Amino acid sequence: MNQTRRKRRSDPPLSSRLDSLSPEMPFPSKSPSLLSPRVRNIFLLLTFCSLTFTVFTYCTFRRDQISSIARSLPLFSTQRRHLLFSIAASRDSWLRRSSYVRLWYSPASSTRAVVFLDRGAGGLDPDLPPVVVSQDTSRFPYTFPGGLRSAIRVARVVKETVDRGDNKDVRWFVFGDDDTVFFVDNLVTVLSKYDHRKWWYVGGNSESYDQNVRYSFDMAFGGGGFAISASLGKVLARVLDSCLMRYAHMYGSDSRIFSCLAELGVALTHEPGFHQIDVRGNLFGLLCAHPLAPLVSLHHLDAVDPFFPKTNRTESVARLIGAASFDSARILQQSVCYDSSNIVTVSVVWGYAIQVYEGNKLLPDLLTLQKTFSTWRRGSGVRSNYMFSTREYPRDPCARPLVFFLNGVGSDETGGTWSSYRLHSVGNCHRAEAVKQLQRIRVFSRKLKLNVEQMNPPRRQCCDISSPYNTSMVINIRQCMPDELIAMVT
Ligand SMILES: *[C@@H]1O[C@H](CO)[C@@H](O)[C@H](O)[C@H]1NC(C)=O
Ligand SMILES: *[C@@H]1O[C@H](CO)[C@@H](O)[C@H](O)[C@H]1NC(C)=O
Fold first, then answer.
1. Residue 5: which pLDDT band, with cuts at 50, 70 and 90?
2. Measuring CA to CA, how many Å separate 330 from each of 56, 326, 349, 457?
3. How much distance in Å is there from the Cα of 346 to the middle of ligand 2?
4. Predicted TM-score of the model (pTM)
5. Atom of ligand 1 nearest to the CA of 96
6. What transmembrane ranges does the database entry give (predicted)?
7. Chain-wide mean pLDDT for the chain?
8. 315 in ligand 1 pocket by Cβ < 6 Å?
9. Residue nearest to atom 5 of ligand 2 (CA)
């Protein structure tokens, strides 16, 4: 339609075309007849020029916009091989803790990593990253009373990694300890939100309020792992040694990195999937209320109990990573479903555990962490202040919900995933009729594919219980309807 109209009006002389525009324009529409022909011509010329300019600028702008979109496309295809992990270890700790690194390091799926030791590299193991010995740091001062000089060596891992020069295609330098376990695919997903050509410092702080007071709320705690974009890493490597001279009074390596980045004018970008784990004992409550964000890391594994019953620490991390290999983005993601006919509430933490509550529990209460763990610092004067809301975990096991732990995951040909959970028996408790025979729960879900759009902001998924159930319950996790509420229908 438009085109035919334009054709019919074909090629009027320039002046008449501008005339036809003139009623829209405030100035000439007032009283064009009052203008002398000369002034009028000048005006027409100016109008023509400004129109040409506008059209030209608009086109240039569009072209810039389009090419900037095109340039930013590779951002969204950040892959494993674009990440280089540097693991800070000592010869003594490495012998014990390399079993954790073995769980997430997989050169076959292009994980790149280097381990930095204080001395004696040892033999070559194809299932472990290459090991290098850190450079001598005796020329740097260290004055923190009772602290460990190794903080300087560990801080310099950042510089020595960049200086090694084996950085082809590296978009992100990632740092962690030998007792840090990374969920690599989730880290790739999280980092793909950020432009690696800009200066980014991405990580998380401590779960412990007091630890954050002591060090900084704005510091990435080193054991939880942090990522530095390649462009920032190169600059940091050049200036780090001069910072190390100025921050001799600080305790740790992460404080030194944080201070030097602050001097470069760079602040931390908080990502909730990094976990320093500054708590001890039973992590159940913490793992069962993970933020609505991909799980990126877990640290301090030697200070916490195995996550699953009748396993050691390595086995329990292996089980979590094994589940993540089926649906990485979904690991530890919590969905809550309600059985209105039996008044039962079920909290599913995918890949880890399910809690079955008798009664109608409101969602906000189930998203609050159960305090199953104890403080990082020991002693009587220590307060248990955390960076999140907590609720008490009943001492009496019969006052707790029924707990089911993951015991298997599998997938079918249609892209669906089955995970199964078995009752963790805690003795002879009186339970409601509807749940007292329950032994197993099977959960069906579809692989969660997160793109940048879906993470900004994310939405919790819904689930349904297939009634009726007796010894075994079946749950289906799915996307919520647009205005569906996660609540019991009463
Ligand atoms: C944990 O269990 C596995 C399998 O049973 C075993 O190979 C490994 O040595 C154990 N690790 C520790 C630290 O006990
Ligand atoms: C539930 O399972 C138990 C044990 O297998 C069985 O004895 C009982 O009859 C079942 N109840 C129903 C309603 O199916």
1. very low
2. 48, 9, 9, 16
3. 21
4. 0.84
5. 13
6. 39-58
7. 87
8. yes
9. 471
Q: Grade residue 48 by pLDDT with cuts at 50, 70 and 90.
A: low
Whole-number Å distance, alpha carbon 437 to ligand 2 midpoint, is 8
Cβ(242) to ligand 2 under 6 A? no
Residue 268 to residue 261: CA distance in whole angstroms: 9
Q: How far apart are the CA of 314 and the centre of ligand 1, in A? A: 7
Q: Nearest ligand to the C-alpha of residue 311?
A: 1
What is the Cα–Cα distance from 294 to 297, expressed in whole angstroms? Answer: 9
Q: Which residues contact 336 (CB under 8 A, 6 or more apart)?
A: 345, 346, 347, 348, 363, 366, 463, 486
- pLDDT tens track for 370-429: 999 999 988 877 888 999 999 999 999 999 999 999 999 999 888 899 999 999 999 899
Is there an atom of ligand 2 within 6 Å of 471 CB?
yes
- Does the Cβ of 15 fall within 6 Å of ligand 2? no
- Please give the Cα distance from 85 to 78 (Å, whole number): 15
- CATH pick for 80-276 out of 3.30.70.260, 3.90.550.50, 3.30.43.10, 3.40.50.2300: 3.90.550.50
Establish whether residue 302 lines the binding site of ligand 1, counting it when its CB lies within 6 angstroms of any ligand atom.
no
Query: CA torsion, points 260, 264, 267, 268, in degrees to nearest 10?
Result: -50
Sequence-distant (6+) residues with CB within 8 A of 108 are: none
Q: Is the CB of 470 under 6 A from ligand 2?
A: yes
Nearest protein CA to atom 8 of ligand 2, as residue: 470
Which ligand places an atom closest to the C-alpha of 436? 2
Q: Tell whether the torsion through CA atoms of 443, 448, 454 and 455 is positive or negative.
A: positive
**Spatial separation of the C-alpha atoms in residues 84 and 184, rounded to whole Å:** 11
Residues 6+ apart with CB under 8 A from 207: 275, 276, 277, 278, 279, 286, 386, 387, 388
**Above 50 in pLDDT, residue 44?**
yes
Q: What angle is formed at CA 329 by the lines to CA 324 and CA 331, rounded to 5 degrees?
A: 50
Tokens of 236: 């940091």
Say yes or no: CB of residue 312 within 6 Å of ligand 1: yes
| Cβ(135) – ligand 2 distance below 6 Å | no
**414-451 burial code (b ≥16 CB/10 A, e <16):** eeebebebbbeeeeeeeeeebbeebeebebbbbebebe
Q: What residue type is 10 in one-letter code?
A: S
